[in-house]
Design goal:
This protein is of the alpha+beta class and 147 residues long. It folds into 2 domains: 61 residues, Ribosomal protein L9, N-terminal domain (Ribosomal Protein L9, domain 1); 81 residues, Ribosomal protein L9, C-terminal domain (Ribosomal Protein L9, domain 2). It has 3 helices and 7 strands, in the order ββαβαβαβββ. It has a 4-stranded mixed beta sheet. Strands 2-1-3 form a 3-stranded antiparallel beta sheet, covered by helices on one side.
Length: 147
């Protein structure tokens, strides 16, 4: 019997997969526990629509990530900070501060966990920074720390 899984089943498959199982296993275990539905035309149509919806959503996310990359690529983010007499900053520049500056200046919300800084920013100068927008889509930004 063919069944569409509603939940992940260990040793059988992941949610949304079409699997071939014995009649007894399906009727006595999968169906009573709402782990699967019998694969009829309505369920197959729902599965197909769910896959198309997921693909559309992924395509939208990729398009947005590419647009953000074009907007931010090779831009300079200027951050003002205070320092001591020897030129060292009080503390360091964090990804959160970079994220806030990008949001303020370019209007793009970037999660601070997606920002990778090369080394630590503890002095004035220019530093390279990479932003992971989506799997395989990264934007390189220059962070300039000034007084």
């Amino acid at each position: 019997m063919k069944a569409v899984l509603l939940e992940d089943v260990k040793g059988l498959g992941k949610r949304g997969e079409l699997v071939n199982v014995s009649d007894g296993y399906a009727r006595n275990f999968l169906f009573p526990r709402n782990l699967a539905k019998e694969a009829n035309s309505q369920v197959m149509n729902e599965l197909k629509n769910a896959e198309e919806s997921k693909k559309y959503k992924t395509d939208q996310q990729i398009a947005h990530a590419k647009a953000v990359k074009e907007k931010l690529e090779a831009k300079t983010v200027v951050i003002h900070a205070k320092s001591g007499s020897n030129g060292k900053l009080f503390g360091s520049i964090t990804p959160k501060e970079i994220s806030n500056e990008i949001k303020q200046r370019y209007g793009e919300v970037i999660d601070k966990r997606k920002i990778t800084i090369t080394g630590e920013i503890k002095q004035y100068g220019k530093y390279d920074c990479e932003i992971k927008l989506y799997t395989g889509i990264n934007a390189k930004v220059i962070v300039e720390v000034t007084e």
